[in-house]
Specification:
The complex is a heterodimer of chains A (319) and B (429).
Chain A lengths: L2 H7 L17 H18 L3 E4 L4 H14 L8 E5 L5 H14 L3 E5 H6 L16 H12 L3 E3 L16 E4 L27 E4 L7 H11 L10 E8 L2 E4 L13 E6 L12 E2 L5 H10 L4 H5 L9 H8 L3
Parallel strand pairs in A: 1-2, 1-4, 2-3, 4-6
Antiparallel strand pairs in A: 5-6, 7-8, 7-9, 9-10
Chain B lengths: L5 E8 L5 H11 L5 H13 L15 H6 L6 E6 L4 E8 L5 H8 L4 E7 L6 H12 L4 E7 L8 H15 L6 E6 L23 H7 L12 E7 L11 E5 L4 E3 L3 E5 L3 E10 L2 E3 L1 E3 L3 E6 L10 E4 L5 E12 L15 E5 L2 E14 L6 E2 L10 E14 L3 E2 L2 E2 L1 H4 E6 L5 E10 L4
Classes of the chains: A alpha/beta (319), B alpha+beta (429).
Amino acid sequence: MNAVLKQQDQYASFGTRISDVPVNNHLGWLESEAIHIMREVVAEAKNPALLFSGGKDSIVMLILAEKAFRPDRFPFPLLHIDTEHNFPEVIAFRDERAAALGEKLIVRSVQDSINTGRVVLRREDESRNVHQTVTLLDSIREFEFDALFGGARRDEEKARAKERILSHRDEFGQWDPKNQRPELWDLYNARLHKGEHFRAFPISNWTELDVWQYIAREKLAVPSIYYAHERLVVDRRGLLAPITELTPPRAGETPVLRTVRFRTVGDITCTCPVLSDAATVEEILLETAVTRVTERGATRMDDQTSDASMELRKKAGYF
Amino acid sequence: MSTVDTLRFTTAGSVDDGKSTLIGRLLYDTKSILEDQLLSIENTTARRGGKGVDLSLLTDGLTAEREQGITIDVAYRYFATLKRRFIIADTPGHEQYTRNMVTGASTADLSLILVDASKGLQTQSRRHAIIASLLGIAHVVVVVNKIDLVNYSQEVFDRIRRDFIAFARTLNFARVDFIPASALEGDMVVDRGERLNWYQGPTLLELLEATRAAESAAGDFRFPVQLVARSKFGAKSEFRGYMGRIESGRVSVGDRIAVLPSGLEATVLDIVTLDGSLKTASAPQSVTLLLDTQIDVSRGDLFAHVEDLPTVTNQITANLSWMSSQPLDASFAKPGRYLIKHTTQTVRVVLEGIDFRLDVNSLERETGVASFKLNDIGRVRLKTLRPLMVDAYVGKFGANRATGSFILIDDVTNQTVAAGMILGEVGND
C-alpha cells in the first residue's frame, strides 16, 4: 500500500463542519479534576517537579498549574529531559514559556549522560528517545524528587490505559503494571518509602481532541510546527520521516516537499509529521475529530517495534 | 463524578460472556477505532489463525494479558459521539477480581451488566450487580448478550429479565434497563440489526446517550480544604485563600459556612479563580475561597453551610471491600498499623469490630467472622484518632462519593488495602 496516499485519506476534513466536533462542555470537569489532582500531589509530596517539554500536553499542564496555584508561584520547578535532538522551535518555545511564567526550569541533557558514560549508544545515529529514561532517573536522584507531574493521557496507548493517575515507581524507577495500588474515587494514596517516587498524570482522562479543544478555549500558544508548514520528508515504513541535519535521507531515498504538521513533538529521530493543511486551531480541531489514525500510530517510530514497546519502556522508568 | 455530557460507566465480565466483544463492538460501530489499531488487530487475529477482526483484542492492554488471554486490571477507554462523551472503566469479572470491579464502579454513573443468553443469569452477573449497588450506582443496564445463540428468542430474554428483577428487588437501583443484543453480530449495540424486531426499546448506544449522569451540583455544599494559600490575593493581604474542589452543592459570596471539625463560623468573602472572581460556584469546580475572618484552617478541614452540616464523628460503620492479599487480622484492632484517607485528611484508624461478611453471590450475611481476605466485602465498625466529617455514602441525592468514601492504607507497606463506603455513625446507622 502506498503509505503517503493512505495518509492523505486519513483526514476527511473537506466538508467537515464544526458541528461535527463532539461536545466540549466537559472541559470544565476535566480542568477541575486536573487542578484537584495537582493540589493533592503538592499537599502530599515533599519535593515535586513538573515535566515540561514544550509539547502540547505539557503546555496544557502549565496553564492547569497556573489555575491551581496562582497568584502564588508554582510549588515546584519545571524539568525537561532534553535529548538535544529536539526541534529547535519547540526548545525556543520551552524557554520563552518558562521565562514568561517566571518559573524555574531545570534542563538535564541526554548528551551529558552520554558524555559521562551513563548512556552508551550502540550506534552513533541511534535514537536517544529510550535513553531519556537514564537521564530522567538520574535527575530524580540528583534533586531527590518524589513526585513528577507528566502530561501522559490514557487514550494515547494501551499500556497507559492501565496506568493509575498517581503511579508508583520503585527505588529503581520501575513501574510494575501487575502490582499497582488500587485507585478509587478521587482518593490518591501518595505514601512512599525512601527512594521511591510517583508519576502523577492529571490529564489522564483527556483525549487528543480534549487537549485541542482546551487549547482553543484557553487560546494557548503552541510551537509553530503543530501547524501546517512545508517540510522535506521521506516515506519510511508508512511514516513521513522529517529530513533534518540529524536525520539525513538514506541511500536510495528521495526527499519530497510536503505540507505537513506534527501531532506530537518528541525526539527528531523518532517523531514524524502528518500531511495536513490545518493552519489554525479550529482546523486542527476539525482534523482531529475525523482522523482515522491514532496520535502515536501516525507519528511515532518508537511505538512500532512491537505490541509492547511502550509497556517495556514504562516498566524501565520512562515517562 | 461526571458532568452531564460525560457518562462514566463500568462493565465487568469474564472471558466467555462477551464483554470484550461488546466493548469492541461499541467502539468499532461508533468509529472510535482507528485504522492503525484495526490493522494491528487484523494482524494479530490472522497470526492466531482467525479471520477478519477479533473485536475482543481491542481491549487487550498488557503483555501478560495478551499472552494469557485475560484481563488483569482496570483499563479506561474513551470514546465520543456527537451527543456525548464516554469513559468506560473496563474491569475483569473473575471472582478473584472483585477489587477491580469495586475500583471501576467507584467513579461510574452507570453499570453495564452482561448476561450470556445461552446460560441465563449466572453468579458473576449477580456479583456485579451487588457490587454496583454497594458502590451507589443507581442505574444499571442489563445486556442480554449472545442472543444469536438462542435464535434471537424473546422468551429467553423475558425469562432472564424476570430472573434479574426478582433477584435485584433488594438492591438499591433507581432504574434497570434490559437490552437483548448480539455483540458478535452487531445487533442492538449501535445498530438495531434486523433480527430483534420484537424489541421496541432503544439500542445500547441510544440508551447510553440519553442517560442522565450524576448531578454533583445537587446535594449539600461540601468543600474539603486541600491547601492553604498564603499569598496575597489582591489588596486584601490579611486574608488567606483556601484551595479545594466543591464536591457537592454550591456556594455563593455572602454564604455563612462552618469550618469543621472546629465548628467556627465565617462568611464567604470571595471565590477566586485564575479567570476572575465568581459570585457563585458549584460542584465539581476547583476554586479558592476567601473568608471574612481569620480562623485557623488547615488541610483536612471541611467547609459546609451552617444549616446543612455533615456528621462529625470518630466512630463509623461502613461497608468495607478488602483489597490486599494480606488479610485483615487482629493487628487491625491495635492502633498504629492502619491509616484512613477520607476527603483530604489521613488519620490513624482501628477496627472496633466486624459485623458480618457479605456473600457477594447470594447477599447472605455471615456473622462471627474474625478476618477478611482479598476480595471479601462486609460491614465493619471503625474508630479514628481524629474526627471525620462524613455523610452516608448512599444519600438522598444519590451517592455522596466524596464524604461517604474512604480508603485504608497499611502504614508499613504503604499499600492501599481496603475501600469503604460509610453507612453512618456507630449506633446511628
